């Protein structure tokens, strides 16, 4: 592979070869932000004519993996709403922050404006039942982490992961901010709440490096305090008939 070939040129070549009928495409993720490594995959959103099939595909092109988010024009609103319901906004952020690769008819520009409107509205708020459930779940993880023996590193590390994940989701929900998975979780967390987000991430790192859960337990407790405190006795979950 030529060292001078950029992720954008690779992505555009992929579109021309595999989807010559595409109505437009966007390059997103780390590659669009100039943060790609030689092994980073390409996140590419592709607009297809109605009558094609919306889908997600992973392919390899010119030696680089590419994750493709393919949507017909008619399906875009439905998939944007699904993205919003998941609270991660994966495809929404590709259109918002990505690099246009091709847009001969203006469809990408219009889709970007639609994505930005959805992102500006924010993810859906948690319902009262969801707040209570997640407070209870985080309390359980936090308590188990505090009690976990440093000698059982498998359990301690697993509990630290779950504690960070649930605390991060609750903190981001409180800020009406979008969440993320993988590398996007710390990025979104630090963007939404630099102080509390860093406390959670530092606490998680301390568990990993020193088998000491104290900082993560304190950080999780601080998140719970924002939401009414830990929830233990008195929690009720109603089952539908």
Q: Can you give a write-up of this model?
A:
The protein has 241 residues and is of the alpha+beta class. It folds into two domains: 7-121, Beta Polymerase, domain 2, CATH 3.30.460.10; 128-226. It is 54% helix and 13% strand. The protein is built from ten helices and five strands, in the order αβαβββααβαααααα. The chain has helices at residues 7-18, 29-32, 76-86, 90-97, 107-121, 128-147, 153-174, 184-192, 194-210, 214-226, and strands at 24-28, 42-48, 55-61, 64-72, 99-102. It has a five-stranded mixed β-sheet, sandwiched between helices. Helix 4 crosses helix 5 and helix 9 (194-210) runs antiparallel to helix 10. The radius of gyration is 21 Å and the shape is elongated. It starts with 6 loop residues before the first helix and ends in a 15-residue tail after the last helix.
């Amino acid at each position: 592979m030529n060292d001078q070939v950029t992720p954008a040129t690779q992505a555009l070549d992929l579109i021309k070869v595999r989807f010559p009928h595409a109505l437009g495409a966007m390059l997103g993720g780390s590659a669009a932000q100039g943060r790609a490594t030689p092994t980073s995959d390409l996140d590419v959103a592709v607009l297809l004519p109605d009558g094609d099939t919306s889908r997600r595909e992973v392919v390899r092109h010119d030696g680089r993996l590419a994750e493709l988010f393919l949507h017909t024009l008619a399906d875009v609103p439905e998939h944007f709403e699904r993205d919003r319901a998941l609270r991660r906004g994966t495809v929404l952020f590709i259109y918002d922050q990505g690099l246009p690769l091709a847009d001969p008819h203006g469809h990408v520009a219009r889709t970007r404006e639609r994505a930005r409107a959805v992102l500006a509205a924010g993810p859906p708020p948690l319902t009262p039942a969801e707040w209570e459930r997640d407070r209870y779940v985080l309390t359980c993880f936090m308590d188990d982490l505090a009690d976990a023996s440093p000698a059982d590193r498998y359990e301690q590390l697993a509990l630290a992961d779950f504690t960070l994940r649930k605390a991060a989701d609750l903190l981001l929900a409180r800020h009406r901010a979008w969440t993320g998975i993988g590398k996007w979780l710390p990025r979104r967390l630090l963007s939404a709440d630099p102080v509390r987000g860093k406390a959670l991430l530092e606490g998680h790192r301390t568990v990993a490096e020193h088998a000491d859960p104290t900082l993560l337990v304190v950080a999780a407790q601080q998140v719970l305090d924002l939401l009414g405190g830990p929830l233990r006795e008195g929690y009720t979950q109603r089952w539908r008939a």
